[in-house]
């Protein structure tokens, strides 16, 4: 098939898929559905995810980095918050840990799964991958600070018995999370934008002394960003259309995932898995668009975009979800348990150590990608077999 026709067919398909995905919602939302509807909804959910990836990449290409990564990270966080609040409103004995399980799952799947898959995909195609250690390190520092403050500290406070904050402590954690996330966004998009732009191999050259490496100058990176991909940026009309369709696709993902949530919970229960595994599945669903977008960027030797997506999603997942859940907890019919268990804290600490060692050199090989993916597998396995 002619490549031009193939791209045209793909573009048309991604226009209609999100719209078609909305059609079953009036007939399935909040209702018990049979096996046939479960299969149909699952297929439409997958199509919506793929359409969201396409339209997010179009918007990202138009606005440039790092704004494109930021758009997708915030959009996916909206999905996550909506699913968590919806499921917590249904109550149940395990609803009080759903926010913690989902947010921690998102952090582990982004910092290990997305990062690892991107590094491995990029290194398999280009042998080594390069990125800005300054920007990526700053993002990782924010993620670790947010994770520790919101998910670890509740175990060690004494105002309230159990793994939860008191009202004032939760308010402080929410405000601090928003402040830190806002500071990072300003740093990423205004003051030090060049730290988060892709690095070309030619710009990652040896220093005069020693075996260190230096990245390109601010002017070099600005030129690189303006060149972007070889394809011409989309028109303003096309970008606006993709933005609207991205929102439609994300709404479809939220609705269809909610429809699938009851079958998912029944499946988890039927397999004898702990209820906390529902949080892992929710995180896998909502992070699918970013995972595909990050791997695609890595294959194009734009690993910095992949890392922006991975760590940016982890940061948004914690820094935006926790404040919203904190406000929603006023009306939620259950307590909010945020403190992680011992196994989860160990995995978070190991992720922090490995992440630092991966980021500091500013370049990585298949080995680093494999390490992160092994940590992802360990997290999923231990979530299913605690």
UniProtKB/TrEMBL annotation:
Keywords: Membrane, Transmembrane, Transmembrane helix. GO terms for molecular function: potassium:proton antiporter activity; sodium:proton antiporter activity. It is a multi-pass membrane protein. The keyword Manganese does not apply. One of its GO terms (cellular component) is plasma membrane. It holds the Pfam family Na_Ca_ex. The chain crosses the membrane at residues 9-29, 35-55, 67-91, 103-124, 136-156, 168-186, 238-257, 277-297, 309-332, 338-360, 367-384. It is found in: Membrane. Residues 36-189, 242-382 form the Sodium/calcium exchanger membrane region domain. Residues 215-235 are annotated as: Disordered. Residues 217-235 have a biased composition (Basic and acidic residues). The keyword DNA damage does not apply. This is Ionic transporter y4hA. It comes from Flexivirga endophytica. The lineage of its organism: Bacteria, Bacillati, Actinomycetota, Actinomycetes, Micrococcales.
């Amino acid at each position: 098939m002619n490549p031009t026709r193939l791209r045209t067919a793909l573009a048309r398909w991604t226009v209609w898929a999100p719209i078609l995905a909305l059609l079953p919602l009036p007939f399935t939302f909040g209702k018990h559905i049979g096996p046939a509807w479960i299969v149909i909804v699952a297929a439409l959910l997958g199509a919506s995810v793929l359409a969201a990836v396409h339209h997010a990449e179009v918007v990202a290409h138009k606005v440039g980095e790092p704004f494109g990564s930021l758009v997708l990270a915030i959009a996916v966080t909206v999905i996550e918050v909506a699913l968590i609040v919806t499921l917590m409103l249904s109550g149940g004995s395990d609803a009080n840990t759903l926010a913690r399980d989902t947010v921690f799952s998102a952090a582990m799947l982004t910092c290990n799964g997305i990062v690892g898959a991107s590094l491995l995909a990029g290194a398999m195609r280009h042998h080594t991958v390069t990125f800005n250690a300054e920007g990526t390190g700053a993002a990782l520092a924010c993620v670790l600070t947010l994770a520790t403050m919101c998910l670890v500290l509740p175990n060690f406070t004494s105002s309230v018995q159990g793994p939860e904050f008191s009202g004032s402590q939760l308010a402080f954690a929410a405000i601090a999370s928003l402040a830190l996330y806002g500071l990072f966004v300003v740093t990423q998009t205004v003051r030090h934008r060049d730290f988060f732009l892709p690095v070309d191999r030619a710009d990652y050259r040896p220093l005069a002394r020693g075996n260190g490496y230096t990245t390109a100058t601010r002017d070099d990176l600005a030129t690189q960003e303006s060149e972007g991909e070889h394809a011409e940026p989309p028109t303003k009309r096309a970008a606006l259309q993709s933005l609207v369709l991205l929102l439609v696709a994300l709404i479809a993902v939220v609705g269809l995932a909610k429809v699938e949530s009851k079958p998912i919970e029944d499946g988890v229960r039927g397999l004898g898995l702990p209820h906390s595994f529902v949080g892992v599945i929710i995180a896998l669903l909502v992070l699918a668009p970013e995972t595909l977008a990050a791997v695609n960027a890595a294959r194009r030797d734009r690993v910095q975009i992949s890392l922006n997506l991975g760590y940016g999603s982890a940061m948004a997942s914690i820094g935006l979800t926790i404040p919203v859940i904190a406000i929603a907890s006023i009306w939620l019919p259950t307590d909010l348990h945020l403190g992680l268990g011992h196994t989860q804290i160990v995995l978070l600490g190991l992720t922090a150590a490995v992440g630092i060692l991966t980021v500091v050199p500013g370049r990585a090989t298949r080995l680093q990608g494999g390490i992160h993916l092994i940590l992802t597998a360990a997290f999923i396995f231990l979530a299913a077999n605690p």
